[in-house]
Specification:
The chain has eight helices and two strands, in the order H-H-H-E-H-H-E-H-H-H. By secondary structure, the chain is mainly α. The chain has two domains: 109 residues, no CATH class; 59 residues. Helix 4 crosses helix 5. The chain starts with 25 loop residues before the first helix and ends in an 11-residue tail after the last helix. It binds iron/sulfur cluster (2 copies).
């Protein structure tokens, strides 16, 4: 099997279909992070770039109830997912943010300088986007694409395991053993989405 590793994003490499956004604005009106607000501030003070950008741009809702008022279905959806991962979660400890740069017409008023997290959204098929988001079909397609690639990589590992581990692979600067390690590293980021079962 020949797999092109020249592009480190080979596993997830496709032009982004921005036109699918239906400009409902929901994703800019309720955002959460895996950190508490205090942790984010601390990270920003320590100079972590993403935390700095995030705390500069996004404003905090006073309560989960306020976020629910703004985008009920999206916030409920996020809380449901968080509780699935942590059934003991106290939802009042979750911090939601909104973006003050979203206009009444749901346009981004800082579009040309919007932060990376917005440029990359929805980052992949597993990003939790609001009900009605125009990227739903695209996200499904992305998931299937990634699953198919991971399966191919696993098949390649099986082929490599049949070789002597020290065999030099033609056209590669790796032995079979090194290539297996290399491929496993490529698969690792997808494990949190269930790659071990694909
Ligand atoms: S939720 Fe989806 S469709 Fe709505 S603004 Fe965000 S990306 Fe666009
Ligand atoms: S910067 Fe623009 S794209 Fe990003 S959340 Fe704000 S309004 Fe939305």
């Amino acid at each position: 099997m020949d797999i092109d590793f020249s592009n480190e994003h080979h596993i997830y490499n496709q032009e982004f279909p921005q036109h699918l956004c239906n400009m409902c604005g929901k994703c800019c009106k309720a955002i959460t992070t895996p950190y508490t607000h205090e942790q984010l501030i601390e990270l920003a003070k320590e100079g972590q770039e993403e935390a700095k950008v995030f705390t500069d741009i996004f404003k905090r809702y006073k309560s989960v109830a306020d976020a629910k008022k703004a985008v009920p279905d999206h916030v409920e959806n996020i809380l449901k997912q968080l509780k699935k991962n942590n059934p003991k979660l106290d939802e009042s400890t979750v911090t939601f943010y909104y973006c003050p740069y979203l206009t009444k017409e749901n346009l981004c008023s800082i579009h040309s300088t919007r932060p990376d997290c917005c440029r990359r959204a929805p980052r992949n098929g597993w990003s939790l986007f609001p009900p009605g988001c125009g990227f739903k079909g695209w996200q499904f397609q992305q998931k299937e694409r990634v699953k198919a690639t991971v399966r191919k990589l696993k098949e390649y590992i099986i082929e490599l395991e049949l070789l002597n581990p020290d065999t030099k692979l033609p056209g590669r600067d790796k032995t079979a053993k090194e290539m297996i390690e290399f491929i496993n590293e490529k698969i690792k980021p997808w494990e949190k989405y269930g790659a071990s079962m694909w």
